[in-house]
Amino acid sequence: MKEIVKEYSNGEITVVWKPNTCIHSGICFRGLPNVFDPRKRPWTNIEGASTHEIVEQVNKCPSGALSYFRNNAEIKENVPGNTIEVSNDGPLLIHGNFKLMSNGREEYVQNTTTALCRCGSSGNKPFCDGSHLRISFKG
Question: Which residue among 74, 85, 89, 93 is buried most deeply as judged by most CB within 10 Å?
Fold first, then answer.
């Protein structure tokens, strides 16, 4: 599957969206509907909120489908170390940067959050694609 990557910039930050990684939790548009609206095209209006508000909302993305980078390399973020979180009835969430070894292939993942499948039903293994909702995964 070809990876699609969309970028939206307001001059200060660039929001990166990877639709193949999205698990459609809806956290983005429920939390910041002036920026994220799946009924519109493009679905992201980067001018709909302040940079701070957008960063705060993107950091809540459970799959890592949304991320961002500062356009000014001089600005440094205070990012905590890597953490792993087991989400209730959902994926394993890795917050931070890590190296993934899959099928003898090494992939360096640099993201704020990445969701790994725990239910075994993802069509995008080892990443979560939201299949846990369809099969009512409990765990």
Answer: 93
Please give the model's pTM, rounded to 2 decimal places: 0.62
Residue type, 57: Q
CA gap 98, 121 in Å, rounded: 23
Per-residue pLDDT reduced to its tens digit, 12-23? 999 999 888 888
Strands annotated E in the chain: 6-9, 13-17, 66-70, 83-86, 92-95, 98-102, 105-109, 113-116
Give the integer Cα–Cα distance in Å for 22 and 16. 12
> 102: closest CA among 80, 126, 119?
126
Report the residue count for the chain: 139
Give the 3-state secondary structure percentages of the chain, helix then strand then coil, rounded to 5. Answer: 10, 30, 60
Q: What is the token pair recorded at 23?
A: 């698990």
